Each structure stands twice: as structure tokens, then as C-alpha cells.
Amino acid sequence: MTAVRTRLSMLAALTMFAALSVAAQDLASFEKRMQVRTLDNGLTVLMLERRDAPVFSYATIVNAGSAQEVPGITGLAHMFEHMAFKGSDQIGSKDWAAEERALRKVEENYRAYESARGTTKPDEARVEQLRKAWQDSIAEADKLMENDEFSEIVDRAGGVGMNAFTSSDVTGYFFSMPSNRFELWAYLESERFRRPVFRQFYKERDVVFEERRMRTESSPFGRLFEQFVGTAFIAHPYGFATVGWPSDLHAFSATDAEEFAKKYYVPSNMVVAIVGDVNPAEAWPIVEKYFGRLPKAPAPPALRTVEPPQIAERTVTLRETAQPIYMEGYHRPAASHPDNATYEVISMLMSSGRTSRLYKTLVRDQKIAAGAAGFNGFPGEKYPNLFTFYAITTPGHTPDDVQKSIRAEIERIKTEDVAAEELASVKTRVKAGLIRGLTGNSNLALQLAITQTMAGDWRELFRDVERIDRVTAADVKRVANATFTDANRTVGKIESKGAAK
């Protein structure tokens, strides 16, 4: 057994050395090929030349997500993501002058309708009259729009993978195009942020509300996650659902969305990363020409609210006719904290894949859970967040059963030193995952843009490898003891009140 352990240690060391060599080589290679510029208006643009195929990918990251919302406009960051595909005054309109007047009329009628129905004793007949006038004005505005013109232009030009996302921290937009369509892309991507038009806003608001209904109201797990996060965060907007609260989704307006965009969709708050078959000498003048059109504006103020330290355990229990599930989360610092690499290592040790401690104990050995894992950096990473564990029970077992085993594994990582072989294996897997993520242009563009946005330097994507390599068994034990305490814990669970299908 000693000989076997020695060979395993040597193999882990060789694998780790190889991973480090590849990462270092990639960073050196990337630095030679990477160009970064900040335009006069404050927009940061990254450009990485990769001539593997005649295509390029990009990602635009806006440094605003649901954490930038306040009560009354929750869900608006996600709502604007939908609006960004509706075009501009130049794309998506049959007659912009007429459409602009029609959209102003929509907002006037909506304000009148909202004012009437928001009174203490609304006149129902008057409210219905104003609602109809508002709906009629929407129908008139819709006649002046070219539906889905932005998306159709991208499709005709050979664009693929067009999509977007909204998280607690950022909002992102991305797709890929043939390299001979680079100037068209630069025009389209800059155009939709130069002067976005909020056409079909209220129709899309209904679409977002339906998303919420399907993912939250109609899902036991969705209901649990919303209650769990809202219980863990009592002050910070991480406690808001990204999709928004139902009342806000029925109330905020296109005017609210326009104000949100003016505040957060400014060049100094955005990063664009371009990866693929681009010639920088030819591409930079095009970038300057089109993205330089975005009007300069001050960066939005930093978020003021800080979640206060949790001083007592909190518990939320849902009793549902559904599969029982158990989760518990602990507050941890933001990703910028010096211990972030240690949290990444703990996450891999405890909850990543079939070799993780939770999987081996709860699923493989005890067979009390159908799945067991966790989230590190939940629901976001920009601000202090949660380190969360969860388990889905097998028939005949309860949340209390899995809670006991999860707590035992947590206690073990607090009191026992992680074996050198296990720690080396975890580090190697973390590094290998990073390296694999550098292969595809689209994924790389996203990672580079997000890292530049969150950390201020795309190189931090690679420096994570060095920080992870320096994590020791003592670091793991120290961070675990500081984080996984009773008073710092929030528990969420679904207890079955009947037979689950």
C-alpha cells in the first residue's frame, strides 16, 4: 500500500506539474496575442487573435445584475436583457418618427392606468377604460415595428449561438459570426446599446412573468430556493429573486427600464471580449468607429448595502407533496477575498463529482441521497455570498437523515487534515477544468469578459491557478472552522407531506 500511495503521489505531482506548465504557457501565449484598449468613452475591449477557423466569438458583459435592483423594480435587469434583442431606432422600425410618438403614447396611457388602479378605492369602470386605452395604444405601436429584425439580420449573416443571461452580478450577451462579417457585428452590437428601443415591453414583461410562474411558483425546488435565499439575506439584494417579485413584474414600466439602462448600460460599466479569426490592425479601427459612438457617461455608484453578520441559525421549511430536499448555506466573503482559492478547494473536496466526499458518503455508501453536492459563490460572487450544500433524499429517508451526514462531513473537514494525495488531486482537477475552459472561442470570450469585469484584469483567470496551488491543508481547516458555524448557517428543506411521484 505504501508503494501504491507513492506512485499515486508521483502521478498527482506529475499531472499537476503538467497542468501548471500548460497554464503558464497559455498565459504567456495569451499575453502575446491579447490586446486590451479602453476607448475614449470608457468602454474596455479585449481582442484575442486565434486563426483556427474563419469565425470569431464575442461576449459583452454589463457590470449590473439583479443586485443593482431595489424593491419596486426587481426583475428589471433580466427584463432589459429581453429588450436588448428588440433593436434600436435604426433596427426594428418601419417609421421611427411615428413609432417614437406611438411609444410615448403607450407610456402616457400606462401611467394614467397605473395611477387610477393604485388609488385606495379605485373606480373599476375608470380603471378598465384606461386599461383599454393603454392596450389600444400598444396595438398601434406594434404596427410600426419590424418584428425580430435584429435577430434575423444576425441569422442571415451566419451568426450562431445568439443568447444572453442575467445573473445576480452581471448581464451578458454573446454569439459567433463568420470573420468576414466583423463590421456588421460591430454595428449591430453597438447599435442595440447606443439607443435601445423598448418596443413590445409589456408583452415581454408578461413573458418574464410566465418564466417566473414556471420556474418558481410551479416548482417545489424553485419555491424552496427563493425562500432559502430570502431567508439567508435580510438586507443585501442577493436576497431578491433574479426574475423579480410578482408585484414588480406587474408594475414596472418601459420608462423604468429606460432609466435603468441610462444608469448601468454606460461604456465605463461594460466590457467586450472578442476571440477568434480577427486581424487587430483591421479590427481596431472598426471597433473605434462603432463602439466609440456610445455616449460617454459616469460609472454608476457602488452598491451601498452590506449584509450584516448572521448571529443566529435560520430555518425555512416547506411541506410539499414533492421529493424531499435539504440544503444549508453559510455566509462567506466575496470572490475578491484572499481566501477565495481555499473556498474553491473546499468546494471540490466536498461536492464536485463522484469523487467528492458528499457523493461518496451520502450517495454511494449510505445510499440515503439520490444526489449530493453544493454551490460555492451562491447566488453571486461579486459581494459576500453563500457556500451551500444540498442533498435530495432517496425513498424512505428524510431531510433530517441527510442533514446528519452532511454535518458529519463538515465536522470532518474542520477537524481532520486533508490528506496530501486528496488535496493534490483536487488542485489538479481545478486546474484541468480551467484549461479545458480555454478551448472554445465562445466560452473563452465569456470567461475573459467576466473576469475583466469582476476582477479588473483578465489575467486573474490564470492567476487563480497559482493561488489554488498555494492552498494548504491548514488553510482548508482554518477557513472551514471560520465559516461553518451554527450561528452562520441557514437551513432550507422540503418535507414531504404525502407520497411523491
Structural overview:
With 501 residues, this protein is α+β, with helices and mostly antiparallel strands. It contains 18 helices and 11 strands. The protein has helices spanning 2-33, 76-83, 96-117, 124-142, 149-156, 182-194, 201-217, 220-232, 246-249, 254-264, 280-291, 340-351, 357-365, 399-415, 420-436, 441-455, 460-469, 473-483; strands spanning 34-38, 44-49, 55-62, 160-166, 171-178, 270-276, 314-320, 325-332, 369-378, 385-393, 489-496. It has a 6-stranded mixed beta sheet, sandwiched between helices. It has a 5-stranded mixed beta sheet with strand order 7-11-8-10-9, with helices on both faces. Helix 12 (340-351) packs across helix 18 (473-483) and helix 15 packs antiparallel against helix 17. The protein is globular, with a radius of gyration of 25 Å.
Q: Nearest-angstrom radius of gyration?
A: 25 Å
Stretches with pLDDT under 50, minimum 5 residues: 1-25
* Class from secondary-structure proportions: alpha+beta
Order of helices and strands: HEEEHHHHEEHHHHHEHEEHHEEHHHHHE
Number of strands: 11
Biggest sheet record? 6 strands, mixed
Shape: globular
Beta content: 15-25%
**Average pLDDT metric:** 92
Helical fraction: 40-55%
Instruction: Record the strand order, biggest sheet.
Output: 1-2-6-3-5-4
First-to-last CA distance = 46 Å
| SS summary, helix count | 18
Key descriptive features of the protein:
single chain; 11 strands; 50% helix; six-stranded mixed beta sheet; disordered N terminus; 501 residues; alpha+beta; 18 helices; five-stranded mixed beta sheet
